[in-house]
Write a structure and sequence with these properties.
Blueprint (H helix, E strand, L loop, with lengths): L17 E8 L2 H7 L1 E5 L20 E4 L17 E5 L5 E10 L13 E8 L1
Antiparallel strand pairs: 1-3, 1-5, 2-4, 5-6
Length: 123
């Protein structure tokens, strides 16, 4: 989703602040082995004073609409969402799938459209 010239997201509803991102395991076993998934984005209020009390968002993350559209701005910063897999089972190979949610984003897992897959091996 990086630097698509002139593109504007169409949020899924009036409460969404941009393009939502959601992750899960590819299979039920993968999801179980990931543990709790936590999202940290611009909407999340992070406390540097008490970092241990930062549980993250549990439903999804958001690439905030303020970053769109990209028009070649000088010093443009791409939006970020940090995803933490809290409780990954050791010595397990896990497949993860993350996808974008907006009215004008087509998601096709088979073709990799609007989504990304990666693997975790935690030893």
């Amino acid at each position: 989703m990086g630097r698509i010239y002139g593109w504007l997201p169409d949020p899924i509803d009036e409460f969404a602040t941009g393009v939502l991102v959601k992750c899960s395991g590819v299979t039920a076993d993968d999801t179980y082995n990931l543990g709790t998934i936590r999202y940290y984005d611009m909407d999340y209020k992070f406390s540097a004073i008490a970092p241990g009390k930062n549980p993250g968002k549990l439903e999804n993350g958001s690439f905030h609409s303020m970053y769109f559209p990209y028009r070649g701005q000088i010093a443009y910063l791409q939006p970020l969402v940090f995803v933490m897999f809290d409780g990954v089972k050791r010595n397990t190979f896990i497949r993860v799938r993350c996808w974008l949610i907006a009215k004008n984003i087509k998601v096709d897992f088979a073709r990799g459209e609007g989504s990304a897959e990666f693997e975790i091996m935690y030893e």
